Amino acid sequence: MTKSLMASFAAWLMLTSAPLHAESWQCRNTVEVQCHAGECAAETDGITPLDVRFDADGGFSVCAYTGCWDGTGKAVRNPPHLLISAAQVDWSDPSRADENRSDVVIAFDSADGIALVKAGVFALPMACSRSL
């Protein structure tokens, strides 16, 4: 190859190569389900939706009321499904970190954008959309 052809190819490669970022999602709930002692109860009135964000590499943030569980879990991909799980994730509010430490599980179906999220006392169906 000539130098000019190699330089042109290198320039083309730099222009057409996009950085690789994990696909990410943001989810909200319209029903709040809390489970205690093997029993679950649902509420739709007067709830504050949780804010859940995650990416295909296993990074996640599950925020509820006064804090968040943030971390990176094990991601298992079986398109269109994604399962993220992490054990004993710290709660962001240091004054309640020990009592709110929790396992986090996110099961997501990208075909319809629905996730099932389990963290702390919450067990939630959520509608998700791609985030930028």
UniProtKB/TrEMBL annotation:
It comes from Arenimonas maotaiensis. Residues 1-22 form the signal peptide. It comes from the Bacteria. Keywords: Signal. This is Secreted protein.
